[in-house]
Automatic annotation (TrEMBL):
Name the record gives this protein: Flagellar hook-associated protein 2
Role: Required for morphogenesis and for the elongation of the flagellar filament by facilitating polymerization of the flagellin monomers at the tip of growing filament. Forms a capping structure, which prevents flagellin subunits (transported through the central channel of the flagellum) from leaking out without polymerization at the distal end. Required for the morphogenesis and for the elongation of the flagellar filament by facilitating polymerization of the flagellin monomers at the tip of growing filament. Forms a capping structure, which prevents flagellin subunits (transported through the central channel of the flagellum) from leaking out without polymerization at the distal end.
Glycosyltransferase recorded as keyword: no
Organism: Citrobacter arsenatis
Short name of any one Pfam family annotated for the protein: FliD_C
Subcellular location as annotated: Secreted; Bacterial flagellum
Keyword set includes Oxidoreductase: no
Complex and partners: Homopentamer.
Domain Flagellar hook-associated protein 2 N-terminal: 11-106
């Protein structure tokens, strides 16, 4: 069979063009599949966008779903020498505070005369030794075992610091060839240190100290003290200069001794207002996402296709379920307080867009005059009642591993897998069909070439006979 570099050469027919046209026609069988793949891929992406928007709203809802938010306070001090902060539950009021003594941390040091920080100071005949540090505020004594290679100032320092016990060790250079080891405990009388070393008499001679008797081979640089203060005339003693429970909900930071410092705690609605506005903004942003994903652009009657700008989840039941489910909770707070609806605290729904809007004046009045009722409406008992509590339950279900979004995504992924298999099957079928066409055209080309050759030969013979 003759071979040809291009179809149609042998037959002088446009077989190459015909094969190209047939191939193009066959490949159109893939178009419905690719369109379905594009549609489903767009829907999968859209569900990811929906999930992200829902998670952002969930974050804002969680922030507002806190009873402590409505118990916020602010605090001021009459002096910079005594600062304070508050937590939820701090009782508004004025507190007169006098600090007569600051808490101090005990500090001990070895005696002078140690010439090297790396020189072994322990008994070389002993393989191990244990430093024991006893403190009244610690249930069990701190025990630190040292090897023969850990008896230098650096070795002892590192071993104590590695214990991470609240006792810190450092080395101080007094002068050339004169170093001291300094141990510092946490502040407070109950953290005074009594130190002994077993298994090494040399180290015991270096580190031994009895805080009860105030004697030993180490010397006390700083005495341990508790903070002493009066709060509204009540004597308070604490081991730290950070007082967290006098009064409760107020943290006092003592820096100097002061007399009659005034700490004023007042109720504040700033955090609650901020959380409510953040919640409204997040919900409105979620509505924008709904609108984008379900957007519909009207087309002329009789149009064969819809507008390409339509949302990927147009007509999707999951979106409607989520949107309806969340909106339903706005009127489902089950509040026993004075407020029954969001509108009563200044949060209303726009009839056209469905978005929430805030009447700042009305919200401020509700928070100021009836904080408890506002909290009851929005938070409820934190378990079953309260608008944000019920929304939290709804949204958690939507975002669960087996929730409505997850199920929809699984279904789309399953469909995409089927479409991929279908695409490969059709593509292979097309390749087989085109190969068959090509083989047939090649055979036709060969046959026509032979027929043309025979015709030419016969024509030449007839012409020769006629001439003779």
């Amino acid at each position: 069979m003759p071979s040809f570099t291009s179809l149609g050469v042998g037959s002088n027919l446009p077989l190459d063009t015909l094969l190209t046209n047939l191939t193009t026609a066959e490949k159109k069988r893939l178009t419905p599949i690719t369109q379905q793949q594009s549609t489903n891929t767009a829907r999968l992406t859209a569900y990811g966008t929906l999930k992200s928007a829902l998670e952002k709203f969930q974050t804002a809802n969680t922030t507002l779903n806190s009873a402590d938010l409505f118990k916020s306070t602010t605090v001021t001090s009459s002096t910079e020498d005594l600062t304070a902060t508050t937590t939820a539950g701090a009782a508004p009021g004025t507190y007169m505070i006098s600090v007569t003594q600051l808490a101090q941390a005990q500090s001990l040091s070895t005696k002078s005369g140690i010439s090297s920080v790396k020189e072994a100071l322990g008994d070389t005949s002993s393989d191990s030794r244990t430093i024991k540090i006893e403190q009244k505020g610690r249930k069990e004594p701190l025990e630190i075992k040292l090897s023969k290679d850990q008896t230098s100032l650096e070795g002892i320092r590192d071993a104590i610091n590695d214990a991470d016990s609240g006792i810190s060790a450092s080395i101080v250079k007094v002068k050339e060839n004169d170093y001291q080891l300094v141990l510092t405990a946490d502040s407070g009388v109950d953290n005074k240190m009594t130190i002994s070393v077993s298994g090494d008499s040399k180290l015991n001679d270096l580190l031994a100290y009895d805080s009860t008797a105030g004697s030993g081979n180490m010397k006390q640089l700083v005495e341990a003290k508790n903070a002493l203060l009066k709060v509204n005339g009540i004597d308070i003693e604490r081991p730290s200069n950070t007082i967290t429970d006098a009064p409760q909900g107020v943290t006092l930071n003592l820096t100097k001794e002061v007399t009659d410092a005034r700490i004023t705690v007042t109720k504040s609605n700033e955090k609650a207002t901020e959380a409510i506005k953040g919640w409204v903004d997040a919900y409105n942003s979620l509505l924008d996402t709904f609108s984008t994903l379900t957007k519909y652009t009207e087309v002329d009657p009789g149009a064969e296709t819809q507008d390409t700008n339509n949302g990927a989840l147009l007509g999707d039941s999951a979106v409607r379920t989520i949107q309806t489910g969340i909106r339903a909770q706005f009127a489902n707070g089950a509040s026993d307080g004075a407020f029954k609806t969001l509108g009563e605290i200044g949060i209303t729904t726009d009839g056209t867009t469905g978005k929430l809007k805030i009447d700042d004046t009305k919200l401020e009045k509700a928070l100021k005059d009836n904080t408890a009722a506002t909290r009851q409406l929005l938070v409820g008992d934190g378990k079953e009642t309260g608008i944000t509590t019920k929304i939290a339950t709804e949204v958690k279900g939507y975002l669960a591993d087996d929730g409505i979004i997850d199920v929809a995504q699984d279904n789309i992924n399953a469909t995409l897998k089927k479409l991929t298999k279908q695409y490969l099957a059709v593509s292979n079928s097309i390749d087989d069909t085109v190969a068959r066409y090509k083989a047939q055209f090649t055979q036709l080309d060969s046959m026509m070439s032979k027929l043309n050759s025979t015709s030419n030969y016969l024509g030449q013979q007839f012409t020769a006979m006629s001439n003779s």
